[in-house]
Design a protein that fits this description.
Elements lengths: L3 E7 L3 E6 L5 E6 L4 E5 L4 E6 L6 E6 L5 E6 L4 E5 L6 E6 L6 E6 L5 E6 L3 E6 L4 E7 L5 E6 L5 E6 L3 E6 L2 H4 L9 H5 L3 E7 L5 E6 L5 E6 L3 E7 L4 E8 L5 E6 L5 E6 L3 E6 L4 E7 L5 E6 L6 E5 L2 E6 L7 E4 L2 E6 L2 E6 L5 E6 L12 E5 L4 E6 L5 E6 L16 E4 L2 E6 L2 E6 L4 E6 L4 E6 L8 E4 L4 E5 L3 E6 L4 E7 L3 E6 L5 E6 L2 E6 L4 E6 L4 E6 L5 E5 L2 E5 L5 E6 L5 E6 L2 E5 L5 E5 L3 H10 L3 H10 L5 H9 L3 H4 L6 H10 L3 H11 L2 H14 L2 H11 L2 H11 L2 H14 L2 H11 L2 H10 L3 H10 L3 H10 L41 H5 L15 E2 L1 H17 L4 H7 L11 E2 L11 H5 L7 H8 L3 H6 L3 H12 ...
Antiparallel strand pairs: 1-28, 2-3, 3-4, 4-5, 6-7, 7-8, 8-9, 10-11, 11-12, 12-13, 14-15, 15-16, 16-17, 18-19, 19-20, 20-21, 22-23, 23-24, 24-25, 26-27, 27-28, 29-30, 30-31, 31-32, 33-34, 34-35, 35-36, 37-38, 38-39, 39-40, 41-42, 42-43, 43-44, 45-46, 46-47, 47-48, 49-50, 50-51, 51-52, 53-54, ...
Helix pairs in contact: 3-4, 7-8, 8-9, 9-10, 10-11, 11-12, 11-13, 12-13, 12-18, 13-14, 14-15, 15-16, 25-26, 25-27, 26-27, 27-28, 28-29, 29-30, 30-31
Length: 1209
Amino acid sequence: MQMLTKFESKSNRVKGLAFHPTRPLLAASLHNGSVQLWNYQMGTLVDRFDEHDGPVRGVALHPTRPLLVTGGDDYKVKVWDIRPQGRRCLFTLHGHLDYVRTVMFHHEMPWIISASDDQTIRIWNSTSRNCIAILTGHSHYIMSAQFHPKEDLVVSASMDQTVRVWDISGLRKGTPQQQPGSFDTFDSFSTVKYVLEGHDRGVNFAAFHPTLPLIVSAGDDRQIKLWRMSDTKAWEVDTCRGHFNNVSSALFHPRHELILSVGEDKTIRVWDMSKRTAVQTFRREHDRFWVLTAHPELNLFAAGHDNGLIVFKLERERPAFSIQNDILYYIRDKYVRQHDLSSGADVGVLSVRKLGSQWVQPRTLSYNPAERAVIVTSPADNGLYELVGLPKDVGGELRDSTSDGKRGQGSSAIFVARNRFAVLDKTSQTIQIRDLSNTVTKSVSAPIASQVNEIFYGGTACLLLSTSNAVVLYDIQQQKALAEISAPPVKYVVWSPDGSSVALLSKHSITIANKTLAQSCLIHETIRIKSAAWDDSGVLIYSTLNHIKYALPNGDNGIIRTLEQPIYLTRVKGKTIYCLDRSARPRTISIDPTEFKFKLALVKNNYEEVLQIIRTSNLVGQSIIAYLQKKGFPEIALHFVQDKNTRFELAVECGNLDVALETARVIDKPECWNRLAQQALLQGNHKVVETAYQRTKNFDRLSFLYLATGSSEKLGKMQMIAEKRGDQMSKFHNALYAGDVFARVKVLRDVGMYPLAYLTAKTNGLTEMANEILAQSGRTELDLEAMAEIKPSTLQPPPIITSTANLIWPSISTGENFFDKALANGGPLDYANGDAGVDGAGALDSWAEDEAEGGAGAQADEEAEEGEGWDLDEEVEAEKVLTEADLIPADDEGDAAAAKPGIAETELWVRNSPFAADHVAAGSFETAMQLLNRQIGAVEFAPLKPLFLSIYRSAHTWHTPTPSLPPLQLHVRRDPRKSPVTRLPIIKRTLSSIKQLELAEAYKLVLGAKLADAAVVLRSILLLLMLVTVTTQDEANDLHSVIASAREYLLGVTLELERRKVVAEDPSNVRRSLELAAYFAHCKLQPPHKVIALRNAMSVFSKGKNPVGAARFAEKLIELKPDARVITTARQIVNAGANGRDMVEISYDEFTEFEVCAASYTPIYKGSPSVKDPFTGASFLPDYLGTISPLTGVTEIGASATGLPMPRS
């Protein structure tokens, strides 16, 4: 039996616990006066209640309503509303005169029971908020009181060494009508039924059995007593002895004949109820346990201790199963059963009750269809397996596996061929290949350095070997590793039906790969992944604690449906999921596969199926629209959208001007028209641009557009509009565009710019007009004699060779979109490309007419019109749709459609390489950051920015072939001889160059005691190593070695810098100085630097009057054989420490394996909780989980990461 921890929290001492019966909530009352509400599935604190004054000892959740009741040392019982929208204290019940120890809701009636140190038990009506009964009789503190789960009974435990059972059936008949507090009235409703005496000291807790007439009690006499009741009496059955200190709580296991107890001896103990013997003991090092509770429905328990709480199980609920075609073989209650998925027939075929402990369920089941045999494994006794054949005739008496089964030791056992199976011995790290007679035919050692924790089927004669950070595909016959993939510890492996894909299931992630372990994608989940199965189309369906989800081969995933309780998937066929529930009973669940089939068809470019799904299903929702937009299919998303704003955005994104124009007219906002104009300009559809500018009355841009398209007539109309608007600048621009010199001169004269007007007229040959202007300005030709000769002007508008006013500018045609073509008949859209343009002449005429009308009768109001600006008219709706004759035929559409660009070389770099450096060189910084986040947990990228820019610049060069051409960008390749498809960029910083330059420099700086400079160089080395590429396995191993070396040196240097800082700032803190010197000497350094660290520690310990510690470092120094002078000094230190005694006690135990926390600089001893930096592997205390690693400044401590990629052949 093992304790499976599901959730753990750190807090003040926990005195009370209560599970919610249906939701994943756990209430905990603390000694500091707080009440916490936890979601134990997500591991998050939901809420906190802090209204009690003093410790809160009792807490309970209502079985059906969102209510919480608490009782504390302030003598108060409080009832709380726990709904998210109104979490607050509803009311407080006053009446107890001393500490309230426990509280509980009744399962049917609106009653609350509370036990107190005032030697009374009170029952309250939560509706009327009155006390309806006071149970008196105990002569000391009452430590607990509980309702019976079904009957009208109460059991209480007291420091008076008794357990009492009370009959409260009278309470159902009525409630007291007299004043609350009249003991005579209250006593008539409840009587003491039994007084159980047997404990030698006070009793801390007593509880009923959920179904049997039994009571369990726990006391300060370190005993757990079992009592039985009848209708007339109760008596002691037996006593469980084994605790070494006071027993705080005990309860019955809701499903098995077991008793659980916790005590101040820091243990959780499990007892066999029938034999009254200890089954298992779980011990904590430093925490006394105070409370224990069981979930009313699930196989979950919670225990509170000095420093928090723990939620745990006593057995794995995942049933062992194997599926062959439509037959499911699974184990329930230690019986192998056979279930036909098609017919639903379910029969038992074999008993395995004698395999391992009776309390430990089998872990795995492997089925061999050729021999109709199974291998069942159990974690009992360090791993057992049993090979047994199944009977051919199903039915009749079940045969026990011991009759002809063959057993052996092994943590994992699976069939690998028709007549062979493999067994893993974790202790010796050997894999044995056995035949069906259980005889060893071959034995091989694990082919990898890391410990193999599990073996899985990897194909015929192949195994998948799971380590703590990778999975290796191993060929048994050739005895060599074929492939390896980085992955978190893998718990289960699921192969696709055709064996082409495999899903590696970890606690919080799924790695999908092909049969050669080439990774397709990695999926992360925030809660536990329970199981998975492939459907027939190649989609992985998997279940978490509360969802059924899907994952496509490219990594896209989503939710299919939610779950009340976890299930274990066995097979997916069409719309049906076959699964096992937590009690190992077969179930079927119907699902809607439309969403993932739609996305899969998109991924595979199966547009016919996409079209079929669009036409026949009701796919709606923002998630589908967002997915299509993200994947580059806005034209498909357009068919699902009704919202006008979203429809407009999608239409602009996919370049569908027809839909964009239609929706812009409905929305009719300036920002929409501006966006439409930009998109139409990109496509060269100046008709739509014209419409957009007209709607926004953007006259300046309209004029320039007419100049570019050669629309002389419309430019003339723009001049009229500018004249009526009185906009002098617009009049000048339009005159300039139209080549109207007279109009330009008139504008300049009107605004008083006579010199410019004179020059314009003179240079354009308008001598009479020039003389008029000269006279008007009060000057004569004599005043201009000193001026240089005025030459004729050559400024003329360019001649219109071919007017494009009625033509759409040509663009490369991409052909008609598949979905537009398919949905043209009866689809949501019915537009003809190019027919959405609008002839602006009608609108211009309308404006001009409005201006004329306004100009005739509004002279007195001229100033007001000038201030109104754009609001010249309200309706500009006179539009003329272009006819087909206005359009130019697309003669060369076929040739233009063939002109498609190829794949950019930088895009090939991104596709070909799993290394972030190659993505950086390609300029794809976003994917590079995603890779670094996934591989090494990088979250802070600012320190990497200079390296990103340097790598990008070094991978490209620019060449100018002729001065008239812009420079050409050329890519610098790693190996130019390779095929263009497999080429990769050059990365200027290689592993060897880093070792020869930066690492060598760091070593020199450490030798020269320039520690601050060494720390800077070592930190830069770690950043450089994040962006290194390797091509061979030897290089990959060397890379990991250099990372480890840089980590150790950086940690050692920072430890010594910290020690020097302590000495400078707080010379009296000798203890900390000694500890840091010892930790520095503990770092794994090269011999020359190790000598320095040991000499430093020896010197510091000698000066700190710790001769014994100094002698230990001196002995280690002598083992390294430094020069004679150093050895002489070291031997003197050893002699001095022989009879000495250390004056300062420090936190350093050289005989216990430990690592140094790289943030707090304190030891983390083996077995203590810790978290890792996913890149360097440095250890940290759990307090630093989620923070940035001080060693790199880039990676997140404790982040889930796949590790650096392996080299590709």
